[in-house]
Amino acid sequence: MIKLIATDLDGTLLRPDLSVSARTRAALDATRAAGIHVAPVTARQPRGVRRVAEAAGFTDYALCGNGAHGVHLGTGETLFEAHVTVAAQRALAEVLAARVPGVLFLSVRERGEVYVAQEGYAAIAQFNDHKREPFEMGLHSLDDVLAAPSLKFIVRHATLTPRELLAEVRALNLGGFAVTHSGAPFLEVLAEGVSKAWGLALLCGRLGVEREEVLAFGDAPNDAEMLAWTGCGVAVANAHPEALEAADEVTLSNAEDGVAAMIERLTGQSSAG
Fold first, then answer.
1. 4-81+195-267 falls under which CATH superfamily?
2. Per-residue b or e along 254-266, where b marks 16 or more CB atoms closer than 10 Å to that residue's CB
3. Whole-structure pTM value
4. Which residue, 123, 147, 161, 205, has most beta carbons within 10 Å?
């Protein structure tokens, strides 16, 4: 029996234009009406989740920052937070900057509301990267970026892809943090041991839900741990290889309302068209 549906947003639940289709909304509403929890589990911060919350009907718990931050969207209650330590991010930044000239860093702080970006970062950023205007991130020295713990510590380069950067980070053989990427043009560094699966396990503990009672959806490398952890992990057809490999099943693409199609199938709902 499914008691909780955990779903990624970008590339999974949302259509390519970042909208929530009428079919998807109907499937989510019917699920909630049946007493099943629905939780967005996303790389976005709460501000970014709230941009789609009304369209999707999200009013309960959300897991943000790749599972590092659990928050109740209705009350603003913080369920948990996990931060990358100053020591860990400083060690990474100093060694990686020496190895990869031109690498830039950004610190996400204070429940995901404050972004402290190294000078030069905003110049290569776009609104959709972080669901906020680049000018809001400031022009800070690297020391300022590294001065406080981060809910998420961003690593970016103007020309290297996230996969190329990931290979460079792994070659450093450093500890004290976790690193992933979500399909966005940067790496996302988290506290050691943190992932979407880690955050989802904490939420399930709070709600009294067993992992076998969770249905999860995703598309990106940062979804792989969650898809493998849950009772049934479903990748959308447009998913990255890491997510496809971790999933138990594959549904239609996000452009074809794959999440809604699978929910309808597993819960006996009829399609809203």
1. HAD superfamily/HAD-like (3.40.50.1000)
2. bebbbbbbbbbee
3. 0.93
4. 147
